[in-house]
Write a structure and sequence with these properties.
single chain; about 190 residues; 9 helices; RNA polymerase sigma factor; transcription; transcription regulation
Amino acid sequence: MARVEGDELVARARTGDESAWAELYGDHAERLVVWLRHVHRPDGSADAEDIAAEAWLTAARRLADFEGDRHDFAGWLFGIARNVARHSHRASRTRRTTPLGPEQLEFAGTRADVGDPAAQVAGDDLARSLVSTLPEREAQVVACLDVVGLDVATTSRALGISATAVRVAHHRGLRRLRQRLAADVTLRGADGM
């Protein structure tokens, strides 16, 4: 029965029902930005919010082409965002729209909102830096599953890979993260910190 409600919500959004579109937006907007912050390599031309906004605009224009329910919408939307991020990155490389060097970009990409508590900022920065050390596919899968809470099927649709590939990349990514954290703890212990 829940599937019918989701189908009705998408159908209402297709007909231009603003409240249905707002509900879809409320379901996914924050998770999409969080995911993009963890997997998007900042290039100076667009940040996670810009890419998410472009993904939402693309989704609005192409909603008539979408086939699925409310649950399927997340995978479709995240796939659009992945493509927008790739396009943005390619475009910035060819146009050299980045005025800063890689050192400044890394610093600028980790700035926090003024109201965030310090521990949350430090934790977010650590998570971003750890996830960014993973190979691209593993970083995307870990961010989908562990950062924004998508399921395997939705992650599979969002990234355009099989569910088995999602599970394998997730396993490998978590293993690499555990190894890096263990090495960091060992180094801190050796330094007497």
